[in-house]
Amino acid sequence: MLKRSLIVVLLVSILAVACGGAEEAAPAEEAAPAEEAAPEEEAAPEEEAEEPVSVGLQAASAGWPWYATFIETMEGRAEENGWDLTVLGADGDVQAQTDQIQDLIAQGVDYLVIGPVDPVAVVPGIKAADEAGIDVIIIGNLADPEADDYIAAARVPDDYNMGKDSAELMVEVLGGEGRIFVVEGLPGQPAVIARLEAYDDVFGETDIEIVDSQPANWDSTQAVTVTEDLLTRYPDIDGILSMDGSMTPGIVQVVNEAGLDIPIVGLGGTATELALVKDGSVYGTTCMSPGANSNAAADAIEALIAGESVEKVQIVESPKTTQDNADDCPGDW
User: Fold this and answer.
1) Domain holding 217: CATH number?
2) pLDDT tens per residue across span 67-77
């Protein structure tokens, strides 16, 4: 009996040990590693705002009426396009123009618009701009042909053709014969040279004689003085040719005050000259619009910025204008 009890006790102990071993606590589950926070994305660097296109406009003179309208029109186009426009005027001085072109090159403008005072003197500045990688646009009148390879575009009226048209109007009103004098612009300027050449060519085929030609430097007040002097010297003159619409009102004033009936032909189509054409005080003129010229230059700049091919030389039309078609001329200067 004792033996059986011992066996039972022994079996129970063995079972207890076995069960205790089997019931070892399961290892605690490892905590799931915390999800690593995604690294913050670095803020993309702010793109630098593009600098606006810079345009330098070097005018033969900011004060001449034609250029005043040209500048005003270009300022409007610059504002529309967001261009940074710098305007300098040389007041008709060759050295001032040379210095101002160099100033604009030093500023690093992207495009340079030049209205030459002297066609030859402006060439070194055009070359320097080209060497600096600046596109040059010529306006008003052409530079010397030596500059042709260094300009991106030229947008100009045809001064020879305007002179020719004005001379033909004078031939028409005088019937091909008579004595006239010319009130001209700034001596030596390309426009003056081309127009005088045209006068000679046209009148050389007629019996019209130019007895004198004096400069009034594109100024109506000076035109008064010049006309008074020429009428004193040539009281029996048959006609007066005004080389520019800005001077024509001064010529008309003198003729009217003297009580004379002398045919006057102008050139350019300023607002005041156009009014004189309409009322019969001036027989005719040519319609040269500085606004159209300025828009043509701005169009060229836009095309160059866009990388488009640009016609190198483009003539801005300036048609003959009389009472019959005066309403077609904008008279914008």
Assistant:
1) 3.40.50.2300
2) 999 999 999 99
